[in-house]
Each structure stands twice: as structure tokens, then as C-alpha cells.
Amino acid sequence: MEESLAPLLPVKVRVKEGNRGPLVLRREGRPLAFLEIESENLSPDEISRWSYAILALAQEIFDRLWREKTFQGYPGAGLLSKQLERQPLSGLLIKFFSDYQPEGAFCLEDQTFFLPEAGKDFLLDLWQKGEIFTSASVHLESPEEIEEASSLLELAELLGFSWLSAKAVRYLSELGFSEENLSVLKTLQSLNRKGYVLVLAEGPAPSLRCLETQAEKTLHLDPDKALLALSLSAKETASLLKDLHLRSGFIEGHHRHWPLVKVWAAFEHARRLAEERPVLFEPYSLHALADIYFDLGDLAAAQKAYFLAAEGTAQPLDLLNSLGLVMIHLNQRKAARFLLAKAVQEDPKDPLLHYNLALFLEKEGKDEEALEHFYKAHDLARSQPLYAEALAQRLALKKEWEKIKEILRGSNLGAEGLYLLGKAYYESGQLEEALRFFKKTIEIAPKHQLALAHLALLFIQLKGEYSLAEAILPEIENEEEGELAELAQDLTVLLEREK
């Protein structure tokens, strides 16, 4: 508005806040903004005389700009372009499959929005509400990139994502899927719906070239990977892929729903197999793909794929466990507990199931019940440091140092386990043993501040050496609470006595 009126008269346009005078711009009778006329060439009397004529002109320009620059009552692509001319913007590009109306968005086309600064928290709220959408995290540097970002959104939709994160884009790029291949992907999807077998294969280039001779259409994803449409039966396709020694997933023709998702799922299924053989899409294939979605941060896509795979998975307990973890992230606490507890009930000898249930119970404030499952996980896999260290961390809160020594001794520990064992000896008065394990901790994790602070104390107590204490104290003396703050206080007292 200011730019449009500038050739005629300097004007400031302000958001309407209460009654700010007569020069109010309206939309469908609703006051939206007011005008402030700024001119050194007009006297106050002249401004007053011409103000209503200026307002009429401004209202006409405003109505035209509204038609040109907005879409469905939102700022449109034109205004987003204008913003990008001033500064780059990061946020979510999102397409809703409902009449959901987000706030603070630019509307690019019907139910497709760009939300600056929106991220995972916004998505989590939508997932918890059960909204159906597809989205992509984007960073826009210029107006030209708006259309490119829309292609990314189409790719997300084709491959079953509700959220295409930056991590997901990198994963798909390594797989060979990108927005540059969008038109070919759509062609291959169309061919499958017409009856062609769709194959995603990986292997030696000569084998792929041989397979390509049988293809109606080929998308080369990289030198050793291709997506192809074949005019063969499923049996003939399986035999050919086996003869060519290609790791591959494929689907039969006439898939109306999600053909690209299904062939990708079959390929991920094939990747999991120890032997190299072609995989015809089956429900377990969606279990394999759900794990990928989950790892890439797309909780809604993972949840949907796990549910669809539930009746045919070869690993039902693993599915229950994974789906339970998804429910935790979605804050569906009752469903999460049911799934994790059911997995433990179905296989009470799997330590990972007990461990995950214990973590959940701990978050729910059920510490004693959680501790039982930490014990069980450790009892079932005593050689696994993950379970030993997890149990030791909880016992440290209870100051059960003898139990910690018993649990951790002889295990192949990481830095945290070595530190806990060192602390157990320290608290038991076995200072030489504590010194040994704190040193081992520092060898693995040189910046482990708790281990360094304990070492500094032991160097003073056992050797009369203060140099380490003098070096470490400036790094930890500003700690206000917790174990590190207590150690800093102890070191301060000892150094002051030395002085």
C-alpha cells in the first residue's frame, strides 16, 4: 500500500488498533488498518480537506491489491515473494487434505501453505490432532525457489511422507529419489496402475542394463540402482531378477494406492535380508519402511505403516515395541504402555523390550516399577553394557554402591559405565581403584567433567597434587546445582586451604 501510494503522497499504513481516526481501510466492512498521511508539501488544513479523497483512492488500491496478493483470505505467493526479496525464510511447506486453517501462513494454492518458522512442535500438535497432511521443511532464499519447494512437497506425497525433513531429503537423495525426477516417477506410477510391474533394483551395472532391455520405462537413480516398469508377470520378473543377482523389491501391476511407496517398501525389505533375492511386496515390507519413516522423524507415516504391517509382519514383537515408541513421541501414553507391556508379555525373555518399557515407566514417574524392568533387562543380557549401565545409573540415585560394583565389574563398559564404577569405588572408600576407573573414563571421554573433577580430588587426596584442580575449577565453578556443583565446592575448599 505504501509503495502504491508513494508516487501520489507519502503515507504510512498501520495495523488497526482501536479507533485511530477516520482514515480506516476496510475489508468486507471490517476495519483492518489506518492511514497516516505524511507530507511536508501539504498543510494540516489541506490534508484534512483531501483526506477523504485520499482514503477513497487508497481503499480502491487496497481492494485491488487484496485481489492480486491474497488467496482464500491469506497472504498469497506474491506477498511471500516480496518477503523473500527482503530476507530468506525457513519454515514448513504444507498441504492439508482437510479444511484446516493455520494461523500466520502464506496460502500458495488451495489448502497449500507456507508457515515461516514452523517446525517439529507444530507438526506434533497436528499429528496428535489426527490431521491428514503432507509437508516439507524448506529454506527459501528467493521467489524462484517457491516453485522448487512445491516439487519437494509433491515428492513427499508420492513417497508417503507426512513430513519430509532435511534428514529425509538427504536419505532420499542417497537412494536416488529427488524432485528433479518427479515427472519420471509420476510416469512410472501411472504405468504400474495400467498393469506394468514396478521394480526397484540395486546391483552391478551390466545386470541393470540387461534388466533395462525388458523395461518400458527406466529411471536411473545412480550407477548401480534403477527404478523400472516391466511388461512381465510377477513370476517372470522374480525369475529374471534372481538370474541377474540383483537386490530388488517389486510390485505387481494395477496398484491404485501408493505404488511408489510399496515398491520402495519391498526394496527396504530386500535390503534387510541376509541373502540376495528379489522381494515381492508383502505386509512385512511396510514394517521395514515404517522403521525408515520413524528414523527420519515422520511419526504419522511410521504409525500408519506399522498399523498396516501389523497383520503380516514377520517380527510382531519388534513391531509392537516400535509402535509403542511412536506412541510415546505422540504423547499417547495409554496406548504406548499397552503396546510395550504387551510386547513384554509376548516375549518376557527379550531384554530390549524390558528396557524400553522401563524407560517409559520412568518417564511416567513409576520409578520402582521401572527399576524392576531395568533389573530384568540386565539379568537377561548380562554381557550387554547398555543394560548394565542403565541399571547402574538408577542404583546410583539410591547410593547402592556395592550393587553397582557387582553389576559393572567385568563388563565391556563405555565412558559412563567406567565413571559409575569409579564413583562406586570412590564412595566406598577404595580410592586407588576409583582413580584407575576415572583415568579409564578420561581415556575414552577426555572432556568428561565429572570424572575430571573426581580425578582432581583424588590427585589432592592421594598425591598432594593441585594442578589438575586449578585447571578444572574455572570450567565448573559456575555450576549452581547438582553433583558437579558439589565437586566444585569441594575443590574450592581444598585449594583455599592450600593457599
Brief summary:
The chain has 499 residues and is an alpha+beta fold. The protein has 23 helices and 15 strands.
Q: How does this model look, in words?
A:
With 499 residues, the chain is α+β, with helices and mostly antiparallel strands. It folds into four domains: 2-70, no CATH class; 75-158, no CATH class; 179-285, Alpha-Beta Plaits (2-Layer Sandwich); 333-498, Tetratricopeptide repeat domain (Serine Threonine Protein Phosphatase 5, Tetratricopeptide repeat, Alpha Horseshoe), CATH 1.25.40. 57% of the residues lie in helices and 15% in strands. The chain has helices at residues 2-5, 44-69, 77-86, 120-129, 145-158, 166-175, 182-193, 205-212, 234-243, 259-272, 283-295, 299-309, 316-329, 333-346, 351-363, 367-380, 385-397, 401-408, 415-427, 431-444, 449-463, 467-476, 483-498; strands at residues 11-15, 24-27, 30-37, 70-71, 74-75, 89-96, 106-109, 112-116, 133-140, 163-164, 197-202, 215-222, 225-230, 247-251, 279-280. The strands form four sheets. A five-stranded mixed β-sheet has the order 7-8-6-9-10. A five-stranded mixed β-sheet has the order 12-13-11-14-15, with helices on both faces. Strands 1-3-2 form a three-stranded antiparallel β-sheet, covered by helices on one side. Strand 2 and strand 3 form a beta hairpin. Helix 15 runs antiparallel to helix 16. The longest helix has 26 residues, at 44-69. The relative contact order is 0.04. The model has no long low-confidence stretch (mean pLDDT 89).
